[in-house]
Structures are given as structure tokens and as C-alpha cells.
Amino acid sequence: MRSTSTSRTDVYEAITNQIITAIEAGAGSGKVLLPWHRSGASITRPVNIASRNPYRGVNTIALWAAADAHGYAHGIWGTYRQWKERGAQVRKGEKSSLIVFYKQFDREDDAATDAGGDDDANGQRRFMARASYVFNAAQVDGYQPDATAPEAAPIDPIAEADRLIAASGATIRIGGEEAYFAPKADYIAMPAQHRFTGTPTSSATEGWYSTLLHELTHWSGHESRLAREFGKRFGDDAYAMEELVAELGAAFLCGDLGITAEPRPDHAAYIGHWLRILKGDRKAIFTAASAANKAAEYLRGLDGQFVRSIASDH
Q1: In Å, how far are 160, 194, 203, 263 from 207, measured between CA atoms?
Q2: Model confidence over 150-209: pLDDT tens digits?
Q3: Distance from the Cα of residue 262 to its chain's centroid
Q4: Cβ pair 216, 188 in contact under 8 A
Q5: The pTM is what?
Q6: Going by C-beta distance under 8 Å and a sequence separation of 6 or more, which residues neighbour residue 230?
Q7: Which of 71, 105, 175, 256 is the most buried (most CB within 10 A)?
Q8: In what order do the strands lie in the sheet with 172-174?
């Protein structure tokens, strides 16, 4: 069984290609269901069996895509060694799923310089992308969930969402027919809840909150907050990249809250843009997922109680 290997380029390209395949499959389904549109038992973020922590950034999307491709209902993942340490055995012939982790080097480290890597904001360290291979709980024998772990107190996902939204302090204007964030005036516009209708996978209420969390992710990128810009690197596609960040940020928050991330009908028009960006830049999905994860953590950080409840679950 393979645990870690391959070069930096292989990691970026392999994960990007996996997500491109998932997007194309979802876009061609007639329902525009993308890897981050979650429902049922797979709403929450995938979790590592050893640390009990949720995966972050691009690994969340990669494992959601892998779960969809193989029909895994479980959200628990681990390396071959991690499952073995839990007394479980990966079944013979099972294929692993690729994720990425970053190994940190000092800037002066010759090995890191020769291999190439990404600098931190101050240029003092370099981070090298490395591949890791994980297996889903559905692929192992002998796994038993922790029977001794205390059950988390039941929460009301909508109450949790209301508290997170209130903690942001964002100005939200209810009315009209469109949902959007107005950056110059710095407010969010949302149609009234009664304008949203339910779907086979989510309630009207979940659709409203999913949309509001999308706009709140846009709000987080305002120049007075995270000052998120994509600049010359993405040029004319910068707006499409920001929409992708908002899509992913809302999905991450919905996963944390236990709310179905409902597809937005208006985003069908962006799929072609996203695919072109991803196919032309193997790091684009990493950039978008990182920005989305940062936005989600920023918004959760404004609500200390929500952060504590997430931490207690893992």
C-alpha cells in the first residue's frame, strides 16, 4: 500500500484533475451538482480517523469528490497506517484517495530551494506539497466507532447559523429578488425567506441560509476585512475566481453547521469559467480552496462560541 510519494507537480495536477473530473460529471448530470453540494449523511466535512479533526481547504473538496465518485457514505478517512493503529484493516484491492500536506522548510534549506516550493508571506519559510493516500471507513474491516466517546449535545443548525451571521455584524437588507453583496456600500442583499422553495435534498430554510453564507463569504473579502483580491494572475477571470471562493466558503460553513449546501441556479454560467481556470492553472483550485477556508475560519472566529462547539466535536 502506498502512503506518501510523488512530486510537487504531481500532487497539484493529480488533485486538480480529480476535481475537474468531478465538476464535469456534476455539470453533465443535468442538475449541476458539484463536489461541494452535500446532502444526507455526507453534509459535514471529512474527518481524519487519528486526529478527529476535519480536513481543510482543498483536501475537503478532494475527499468530497472521492466520496461521490465511489459512493462512500462515511465521512471518516485515514492512511493505511492510521487504520492499522485503530485495529482496522484496509481490504485487499481497495484503492486509496489522494490528499496533500505541506512540509515546512527554512528558507535557507538547500533541498527546499532545489526542489522548488511556495514562500510564506515574509519569504522566511518554504512549504513543499507532498502527497498522502487515505482510505475511507467503507474500505476497511474491523473499524468500530468510539463507543466511549461522549455524545455531543444536540444543536439546532439554524440557531448556530443565526448566531454566526449575527456575530459577523454584517449589514443585511432583506427584500427584492436577488441575493448579492454590494462591496462599495458594504451590505448584503437577500430576498425574503418565503421566496425560497425546497428541493428533494434541502429545505427552503436551508436554501436561504446556504445563499446567505455564500454572500457572507463575499462580505469577508471586503478591503476592510480580508482584502481578498486575485489581481493580474487571473485577470478577466478574477470575478469567476471570487465566485468559486464564495461557493466553497459557503460549502465549508454549511458542512460545519450541518446544513445542506444548495446549488445556485445562476452558477451554471460559471462552470465553464471555472473549468478553464482549473485546466490552465494547476494551482488555481488550491488558491480558491485556501481563500475559502480562510474566509470560513475568519467568519467562525467572529463567533467564539461557534469555534468552541466545532472544536469540542473533534
Answers
A1: 15, 11, 6, 9
A2: 454 555 778 999 999 999 999 999 999 999 999 999 999 999 999 988 777 778 888 899
A3: 14
A4: yes
A5: 0.85
A6: 237, 238, 241, 242, 287
A7: 256
A8: 172-174, 187-190, 180-182
Take residue 13 and report the three cell numbers written for it.
Answer: 495536477
Q: In this structure, how many other beta carbons lie within 10 angstroms of the beta carbon of residue 173? A: 11
- Using DSSP's 3-state secondary structure scheme, residue 223 falls into coil
Which amino acid would we find at residue 16? T
**Per-residue pLDDT tens digits for 225-274:** 999 999 889 998 999 999 999 999 999 999 999 888 877 777 678 899 99
For the record, the C-alpha cell of 238 comes out as 478574477
Contact 36, 254 (CB under 8 A): no
What CA–CA distance (Å, rounded) separates 236 from 58? 23
Q: How far apart are CA 208 and CA 180, in angstroms?
A: 13
125 sits in which H/E element = strand 125-136
75 CB contacts (<8 Å, ≥6 apart)? 41, 42, 44, 45, 46, 47, 67
CA-wise closest residue to 221 among 303, 298, 283: 298
